[in-house]
């Protein structure tokens, strides 16, 4: 079963006026991982699409998605898949890949229908593409590892870059996940924006009762989303994206837009935030 929800692009002046319920309706992705279903959020931020596929005993195929009006979803798109569940298998273009927890799969434009099987909980990210790059399974050891932060500032973390220019080529997608070192709680502080690229965070590996206080909004108009395990925050180009967890967490960041330069960020120091 496939269900798709559309999220329109929100102007920052509109976002300032929103209460909790509206902020969550526009910027939070809840219930993406439902057993036996593929659930997608088709956004108008660079037409970036995110979602979840949970096979739960029977294979699930991602093929035609009405919103794109193409013969198959990947006809003019690339896809990044992260398995945040148990062992699973993904098949496309007559090939298949065994995916363990934390493995990332890149499927290039034109890969055709994609089938998900096994105990995997597959996080899906997709953006329009202009050429085909080879399909590739990327393991944590193949990722580019960047250590950031310090225990004194409670933000010691490891940024694992998977779909990233130092590892492989892609059209728009840049994707990886950041693991917090035990005892550290803050991600992406100092915060940043990048008007050239939108971004989405998918928080996972959290205890069910834990929450991340995710900060969003223009740097001088911050708002927050209280986020549970396996929920996503949509970050428009004008928004910061940063958070502090009550307990441990990992988050998948994925971006699409005008460049694939991960370091192209406009930093905002804590003293400038409001
Ligand atoms: O544009 C890059 C993204 O916001 C994240 O990769 C940042 C991040 O993982 C972190 O600082 O912890
Ligand atoms: Zn960012």
Automatic annotation (TrEMBL):
Enzyme Commission code: 5.3.1.17
Family indicated by similarity: Belongs to the KduI family.
GO molecular function: 4-deoxy-L-threo-5-hexosulose-uronate ketol-isomerase activity; zinc ion binding
Catalytic activity: 5-dehydro-4-deoxy-D-glucuronate = 3-deoxy-D-glycero-2,5-hexodiulosonate
Binding site for Zn(2+): 192, 194, 199, 241
UniProt pathway: Glycan metabolism; pectin degradation; 2-dehydro-3-deoxy-D-gluconate from pectin: step 4/5
Cofactor: Zn(2+)
Function: Catalyzes the isomerization of 5-dehydro-4-deoxy-D-glucuronate to 3-deoxy-D-glycero-2,5-hexodiulosonate.
Keyword Isomerase on entry: yes
Alphabetized InterPro entries for the sequence: KduI (IPR007045), KduI/IolB_isomerase (IPR021120), KduI_N (IPR027449), RmlC-like_jellyroll (IPR014710), RmlC_Cupin_sf (IPR011051)
Species this protein is from: Thioclava atlantica
Xref: SUPFAM superfamilies: RmlC-like cupins
Record's cofactor remark: Binds 1 zinc ion per subunit.
One Pfam family cited in the UniProt record for this chain: KduI
Gene: kduI
Lineage of producing organism: Bacteria, Pseudomonadati, Pseudomonadota, Alphaproteobacteria, Rhodobacterales
Protein keywords: Isomerase, Metal-binding, Zinc
Single GO BP term: pectin catabolic process
Annotated protein name in UniProt: 4-deoxy-L-threo-5-hexosulose-uronate ketol-isomerase
Gene3D superfamilies according to UniProt: Jelly Rolls (2.60.120.10), pectin degrading enzyme 5-keto 4- deoxyuronate isomerase, domain 1 (2.60.120.520)
């Amino acid at each position: 079963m496939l269900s798709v929800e559309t999220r329109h692009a929100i102007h920052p002046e509109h976002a300032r006026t929103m209460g909790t319920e509206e902020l969550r309706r526009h910027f939070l992705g809840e219930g993406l991982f439902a057993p036996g279903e593929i659930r997608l959020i088709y956004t108008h931020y660079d037409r970036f699409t995110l979602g979840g596929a949970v096979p739960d005993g029977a294979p699930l195929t991602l093929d035609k998605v009405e919103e794109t009006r193409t013969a198959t979803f990947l006809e003019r798109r690339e896809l990044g898949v992260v398995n945040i569940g148990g062992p699973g298998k993904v098949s496309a273009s007559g090939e298949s890949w065994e995916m363990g927890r934390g493995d990332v799969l890149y499927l290039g434009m034109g890969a055709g229908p994609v089938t998900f099987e096994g105990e995997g909980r597959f996080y899906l990210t997709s953006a329009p593409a202009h050429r085909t790059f080879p399909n590739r399974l990327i393991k944590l050891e193949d990722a580019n590892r960047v250590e950031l932060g310090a225990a004194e500032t409670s933000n010691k973390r490891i940024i694992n870059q998977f779909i990233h220019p130092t590892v492989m080529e892609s059209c728009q997608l840049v994707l990886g996940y950041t693991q917090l070192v035990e005892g550290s709680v803050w991600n992406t502080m100092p915060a940043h924006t990048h008007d050239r690229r939108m971004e989405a965070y998918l928080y996972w590996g959290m205890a069910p009762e834990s929450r991340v206080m995710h900060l969003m909004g223009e740097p001088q108009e911050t708002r927050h989303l209280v986020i549970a395990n396996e929920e996503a925050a949509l970050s428009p180009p004008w928004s910061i994206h940063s958070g502090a967890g009550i307990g441990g967490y990992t988050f998948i960041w994925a971006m699409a837009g005008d460049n694939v330069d991960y370091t192209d960020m406009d930093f905002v120091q804590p003293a400038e935030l409001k």
